[in-house]
Amino acid sequence: MKRILILALAAACVPAALAQKPKGKTTSQPKPTPKVKPAAGVPLTGIYEGAITLPNTLTLRMVFHFNGKGAGTWDSPDQSALGLKLASARATGSNVTVTSATPPWRFTGKRSADGASLTGAFEQNGASLELSLKKVAQVSTLRRPQTPKAPFPYKTTEVSFPNPAEVGVTLAGTLSIPMGSGPFPCVVFITGSGQQDRDSTIFEHKSFAVIADTLARQGIASLRCDDRMVGKSKGDIAKATSASFATDIEATVAFLKTRPEVNAKKIGLIGHSEGGLIAPMVAAKAENGIAFIVMLAGPGVPGDQILIEQGAAVIKAAGMGEAVAAQARANQEKFLPIAKAEPDPQKALDAMAKALGLADAKALPAAAIAQLQQLTNPWMRYFLSYDPAPTIARVTCPVLALNGEKDTQVLVTQNLPVIEKLLKDAGNKDVTAISLPNLNHLFQHAKTGGPSEYSQIEETFSPEALKLIDEWIVARTK
Fold first, then answer.
1. Of 25, 183, 339, 417, which residue is 20 to 30 A from 86 by alpha carbon distance?
2. pLDDT digits (tens, 9 = 90+) for 231-256
3. Are residues 77 and 172 in the same domain?
4. CATH code, domain with 132
5. Shared domain check, 201 and 73
6. Is 314 a domain residue?
7. What tens digit of pLDDT does each residue of 360-407 get?
8. Do 281 and 174 have their domain in common?
């Protein structure tokens, strides 16, 4: 998911990371698996829906669409991954085998006598998780009452443009234009970690669409784009870092300055999570001419510090207790310095294994290796080492920084006071930093703030946070 990656190194040695959306920031690319020869048996038909419970207590819905010809497609709705191809889908008696080649995984289980359910294990990267599915007439949808619905009292236009700073990168998105005569102030949205679509969709919550709708009704235009390799956007992400994504935002700003509907002197940025890291990168460069930025749960300290506190907070929110949280912290404090210092992925893995008292990475379970590899990819290594403080201090435009008090991913006490102090000490005269009660990382009203609640909450974005953002931007773009 394109939120700051959760690496809750709990009781064992492995990080229980939030599943990354197939939006954008990416972990290491999955290794291709050999083509699976379909097992002899009866092809499966119909739609089956269920959910996996991940190690961090987050549930992830899975949907199989069997075509009756030994294959079909599969969805991970909570990751906005739809229509991905199945390599095989066969049943031999009550035994069922379903496989995917890209990304590689296998489901093996039993089909009930009436064919109404499948029960078994979902296996990927050496991990095995229980998965039960029921046959349904159609895929269920979650109630999301804030999602904007047409007709809209403003115009929307599909746009596409290249990023000249990086070969092969093309960004596509939705430009929302208020009714009336322009040019209008405009906001560029910046998504969080993991591959995200233009709406920053997570568990069917479309937070950027909600904010864009609110702003358009108040005379503020906006552009929200799919991340690289998501939706209609293109571009390599294998070696991309936050700095790479900052060039995407610079290209977006440059594109908006060519649009007659947009006031080129009143273009601002709204970044969530990692997007709140990227916004100051772009705003700190005077040549970009950024008029204002809104940092939603943005980091104020280096990534390794974020992850250490995040891991412990997520574990506590999940009710796993202080002892497990302490073990998670201890493991992270062993692993993260290795990931930062050792550029060779295999040497880094071996060093992490030795930190646990093992000979090398070969002694680790396959699931542990797969998760520890997330610490060695280019994006993560950059994130762990990057200190946002010097860049934040160079931001001279107005800044609104918001955090939810129950945020367990980018903790308010660790980050918001630091951001405020950096800006004010550097002489920025227009800084508003607010901690919002009872809100989580997605700015939903929450009980614990843990990621396991995200999908269960109907609210997409709290009305009070929307009102703050709306009024603050309107006041600075009159």
1. 25
2. 999 999 999 999 999 999 999 999 99
3. no
4. 2.40.128
5. no
6. no
7. 999 988 878 888 888 999 999 999 999 999 999 999 999 999 999 999
8. yes
**317 membership: H or E segment, kind and range:** helix 303-317
Higher pLDDT, 253 or 33: 253
Q: Do residues 96 and 120 lie in contact, with contact meaning Cβ atoms separated by under 8 Å? A: yes
In a domain? residue 9: no
Sign of CA dihedral 150, 154, 155, 159: negative
Whichever domain contains 419, its CATH number is 3.40.50.1820
Q: How many other CB atoms sit within 10 Å of the CB of residue 254?
A: 17
Alpha helices (H) in 190-273, listed in sequence order: 207-216, 242-256
Contact yes or no for 63/77 (Cβ under 8 A): yes
Enter the DSSP assignment of 200.
-
My answer on whether omega of the bond before 34 falls inside 30° of 0, hence cis, is: no
Nearest CA among 248, 257, 185 for reference residue 222:
185
pTM, full prediction: 0.86
Answer whether 197's CB lies under 8 Å from 161's CB.
no
Tokens read off for 193:
């970690």
pLDDT in tens, 74-126: 998 887 788 999 999 999 999 999 999 888 899 999 999 999 999 999 998 77
Domain count, the chain: 2
What whole-number distance in Å separates Cα of residue 293 and Cα of residue 401?
8
Q: 241 Cβ partners below 8 Å, 6+ apart?
A: 378, 379, 382, 383
Q: Which residue has the tokens 């201090």?
A: 393
- Residues 131 and 158 placed together within one structural domain of the fold: no
Task: Please give the C-alpha separations between residue 259 and each of 177, 199, 223, 264, in angstroms, as whole numbers.
Answer: 11, 21, 11, 8
Q: Identify the domain boundary among 102, 136, 170.
A: 136
The one-letter amino acid at 105: W
Quote the domain boundaries for residue 94.
31-136
Say whether both 286 and 180 belong to one domain.
yes
Q: What percent of the chain has pLDDT over 90?
A: 77
